[in-house]
Amino acid sequence: MFVLGITGGVGAGKSMVLTHLKEKYSAYVLEADALAKRLMEPGEPLFDAVVSAFGEEILTDGAIDRQRMAGLVFSDADKLECLNAIVHPGVKKYILRDIEEKKTDGHVKLYVIEAALLIQDGYDEICDELWYIHADEDTRVARIMESRGYSKERCEGMLKSQPDAAYFQVHTACTIDNSRDFSDTAAQIRKRLNLIEKSGIIACV
Asked: Candidates 3.80.10.10, 3.40.50.300, 3.40.50.1100, 3.40.50.360; correct CATH number of 1-26+109-195?
């Protein structure tokens, strides 16, 4: 089983790549942000730890209110650090266990992890290879404006707050340029997976 990490800035089109990998190559796709949300639901592993750290005022109808949580942590760097110290290790622990289970099962050939902080959180220790999904700034801004309805100025501000392309490229094995028609992106993905396939680790047919 080949474990592939996918990262990149907002608006780069990571979801498009994940969908393609799932549909074309039968990849098992795990999105870290979605997993974190699930693990903080009542009865899940992180729920009690988060409530214990931040108090029951973050709850609405017995569940963690994400808007209340966001308002609490994003205005306080220490509280955000506290939340990350609970959530990030918990997510990684789940992923490590899931990878071992999938390896033992033997049915998954390509296991894909998507995370915005893939590099910062040390997922290079888990993944066999990291890919950076790139798109030029104009394309990213246009995508965010369309998907979220934000102003151009707000979108540009979001991009400036994130690492630049050079940072991602230094820490990843492959850059997939998703700026143009997706057929071009798909060709780049196929080329890279063909190289991996030659190693005998996965079959990309």
From this structure: 3.40.50.300
